[in-house]
Amino acid sequence: MKTPLHNVKELVGAAFPNRKIDSVELLPGGLINTNLKIHFEPDFNPVVLRLYRDGATACNKEVAINNLIRRHVPIPEILHAESGGLDGSPAFALIEYIEGITFQQLKRTNNLDAIQQAAASVGKTLAAIGRFRFSAPGALLSSEASSALVLGERFIEGPDPIPRILDRFLASPVLQRRTSAELIDRLHDFIWSYAAVLPSLEDECSLVHNDFGNRNILVREENGVWSVAAILDWEMAFSGSPLLDVGHFLRYEHGPLREPYFSRAFVEHGGKLPAKWRLIVKLIDLTGVVECLTHDDLPSDVEAELFMLIDATLATFKL
């Protein structure tokens, strides 16, 4: 999504009419939306201009979540939002810029103490997110009238929701074009072989980020300790089980790196983990990995990475 520089000035001017833009920087990592860092002259703090690919619905939802949780969870404050856009622009928001690096960047430093400290902070933060509860599981939508979140439909009802959700994704024509019938059958047999150990999750109705990965977790060092600076990108959030976010965060955990620091802090601050939770979150996360492969617009390197994750999960367990 590209926006001419003169349009950027108009959008920023909707909230900051008297500030002069010094430079505009495209921020990396946005697979869905476009995020531009706006530098001002002379002494104003930078902000982020976020352009929403999916329009007013995504913009309103992030505003509603921001209003709900920002006093209790570290997230960037939304300073101004225009869900209808301006003069033909996409929906956009101007968001507080938070200094920090992603957890992914921190991992690459191989600084074990820093990674462990940050992982514990992520566990504490995820427990805080899970304390926001709704009346039932399901989609979260924004109410334009009140700028509040409202519940949408449940994703699935009845027994064995996790195997049935995976089967739904496996039936996607997009996914079927990307892979073989052999792998699809193997995934179906694999998830159903573990149906008896998977929880029903029927009564789980906590706030779930639903993209709780390394790129959406900003961390920074303060007073010699690494901790969460902000959790980014909330437009995919829903009401359900925090186990989905647990599995997503541990997706690339192939050795003792984040663990046991993440899970210990999560439980110490009120998070719940069932028996055999490591197995359960790995299986739940498999549905998230497969769901990503049902999307039309997927960079080839991301697609290859997702298939590698599937292969690794299948190799971890035996039927």
The helix content, as a percent range, equals 25-40%
Low-confidence stretches: none
Q: Give the CA-CA distance, first to last residue.
A: 44 Å
Kindly estimate the percentage of residues that lie in beta strands according to DSSP: 15-25%
Secondary-structure element order, as H and E?
HEEEHEEEHHEEHHHEEEEHHHH
| Secondary-structure content class | alpha+beta
Strands across the major sheet, in which order? 1-2-3-5-4
- The best one-word shape is globular
Number of strands: 12
Counting DSSP H or I runs of 4 or more residues, the number of helices is 11
The average pLDDT score comes to 92
Cα gyration radius (Å): 20 Å
> What is the makeup of the main sheet?
5 strands, antiparallel
Summarize the structure.
With 319 residues, the protein is an alpha+beta fold. Helices cover 39% and strands 19% of the residues.
What does this structure look like?
By secondary structure, this protein is α+β, with helices and mostly antiparallel strands. It has 11 helices and 12 strands. The protein has helices at 5-13, 55-69, 103-108, 112-130, 161-170, 173-178, 181-193, 243-249, 261-268, 277-292, 300-316; strands spanning 20-26, 34-41, 47-51, 78-82, 92-96, 101-102, 138-143, 148-151, 206-208, 217-222, 225-231, 238-240. The radius of gyration is 20 Å and the shape is globular. The mean pLDDT is 92.
